């Protein structure tokens, strides 16, 4: 795709750009400015004309001090506006597709949008990127079930670790999201920012 020109308004500045971005099945260039999220796609047989979609950044929802630009699986970012939602998938610009690079690009975009709207970047933890919510808690519960079966069969169950490095997962007491970390530590929920001790 040839590079399209986007004309900035006098009070508009570019924050970041990515040119390997899909929205649905359409590939385009994504530009974040202080006023708009701009998605430019090539049209026509020879891809010489362009379609430009502009989404006002002041219409992106903010909840509990976090912009609703949410990082999903892989290089996906879902952005929730007052009147709808748009999803983008970031790809790597390397010869061979690199999911890690695409993931890093998506995280940069989530942080840039959050920084623009709230003045703070967000820390995306592994539990926030879990493909199925609650899987860490289920894994912990299954571990206890296995120990119970071992005990019923006369096999000594594994002793619970008293080490502070033991990883555990539980539900946030405030919003119900999965939180994980080391036993005895205070962790912050990645969804509602509530602090709790594990």
Oligomerization state = single chain
Silhouette? elongated
Structural class designation: alpha+beta
Taking Cα atoms only, what radius of gyration do you get, to the nearest Å? 22 Å
DSSP strand content:
35-45%
CATH architecture of the largest domain: Roll
What is the count of helical runs? 2
Overall mean pLDDT? 77
Overall number of strands: 13
Order of helices and strands: EEEEEEEEEHHEEEE
Termini gap: 50 Å
Helix content: 10-25%
Which runs of at least 5 residues are low in confidence (pLDDT < 50)? Answer: 125-133
Main features:
198 residues, elongated, PH-domain like, 7-stranded antiparallel β-sheet
List the helices and strands and how they pair.
Elements: E1 14-23, E2 26-33, E3 36-43, E4 49-56, E5 62-63, E6 66-67, E7 69-71, E8 76-81, E9 84-90, H1 99-118, H2 135-152, E10 167-171, E11 178-182, E12 186-188, E13 195-197
Q: How would you explain this protein's 3D organization?
A:
By secondary structure, the protein is α+β, with helices and mostly antiparallel strands. It has two domains: 14-118, Pleckstrin-homology domain (PH domain)/Phosphotyrosine-binding domain (PTB) (PH-domain like, Roll), CATH 2.30.29; 126-197, no CATH class. Helices cover 19% and strands 35% of the residues. It contains two helices and 13 strands. The chain has helices at residues 99-118, 135-152; strands at residues 14-23, 26-33, 36-43, 49-56, 62-63, 66-67, 69-71, 76-81, 84-90, 167-171, 178-182, 186-188, 195-197. The strands form four sheets. It has a seven-stranded antiparallel sheet with strand order 4-3-2-1-9-8-7, with helices on one face. Strands 5-6 form a two-stranded antiparallel ribbon. Residues 125-133 have low confidence and may be disordered.
